[in-house]
Amino acid sequence: MLAEVIRWSFITKQWSLIQTDLIQHVALTFIAVGIGLGLSVPLALLAWRYPISRGPLVGFSSLLYIIPSVALFSIIGAYTGYEASYLTGEIALVGYTLLILVWNTLAGLAAVPADAREASVALGYSKTATLWRVELPLALPYIFAGLRVATSTVVGLVTVTALIGLGGLGQLITYGFNADYYTPIIVALVFSILLAGLCDLAWVGVERLLVPWSRASKRAAARA
Amino acid sequence: MHFFSEVFTYFSTRANWTGSGGIPNLFYKQALLSATVVVAATLVGGGLGLVLGHTGRGGLVAVNAANAFRAVPTLALLTLLAIQPSISLKYNGFLAAFIALVVLAIPPILTNTYVGIREVDADIVDASRAMGLTGPQILGRVELPLGLPFIVAGIRTASIEVVATSTLAAYVSYQDLGTPVLAGLASQNTVEAFCGSLLVAVLAAIVAIGLGLVLKAVTPAALRKTSAPTSLLPGAVSARPQPAAAG
Predict the structure, then answer these.
(1) Taking CB atoms and an 8 Å cutoff, what residues of chain B touch A104?
(2) Is the ipTM of this complex over 0.90?
(3) Which of A128, B56, B106, B231 is 20 to 30 A removed from B66 (C-alpha atoms)?
């Protein structure tokens, strides 16, 4: 039964193809999450510091979030050229990370205990220093939660870029669909989940390194 | 501008509004597919989340598994089901699209339901137990009403994702607003693709605003200012299921 569904010979024979797609998938994901992080954390910090910009920022990223990914690809494609362009794919993918990361960063900043904020004022920190040295570090667990969700989401979404000729593992999906062939689709599915799982573990590891107190306080909370 | 005049022409062409391929019918079919999916996912994900949240057992495993499910590419599931002979393109692709989208919609609903039930103040649960309420009564009369804002927020997030993603159903021949989007993409007709996506965005916005009002209605007034998860993506925050340091 399983032998009918998965032809292992495809995997061994086409391994170099799978490898190329996988590398492209990883590249598309990392670039999107990296740029998304680089844009959304500073934007969220600015929005926190100057509350008047909070509404427009959240509104704009919500708007990007509700436009279907295929649609974004085709609209952006009109300006960046329809050929398999990283630019087209990345603009859309980054757009999806924005809302998740902006929202989580703001939620993290909102969750900073008032005591900590007051203490930093009492110590003579300026508003900017408080934001940078007290509020941001305390918001890190929320930012990491956002990064985990954003990364998983992007790993899944990258496949849709196959419809504009990119796709990473998505190319295996369109190939399998057009050829009525299970194996490539299953390979793409399994590798996507594995990739997302590995990324998730990596983020948990980084969080433990950067935010050791979060674990300690969780343990203390569990004991209490 | 040239582009926008073409968009205007698209929307003012009578032929685009009539027949099975007309805008009203495509809009209706996208709404129908999305609604069916969200109802099914709420029954499965919400039910599971309630039980796990109430018993407090296996919840962390479920929430982490749900997070891993977010990475399942909908396109892969969709095509896999579409070439599977027993499902194939039955009901014009509805069945394949339905199953694939339910898998997409369950994680946010499950996570938020679980977190919503767990976040209920333990003192309140203890008090209701002391008053003699049974387990199911506590769940139905105490935990569910208090956790409802989280649950509705999860349903809202899932609904928006489902509406946007059901565009892909057109790839396995289900006729909805994805049809003009994909056709436009294939023929490099930006106007057609743009108009299709605009309509999807309108549907998503209606859903977001409508469920936002529901969310407001189920959030007790006292909670509205502080902890109410009113924005689009509270599910994202609850990816960290452990309640932060017990105050």
Answers:
(1) 233, 236-237
(2) no
(3) B231
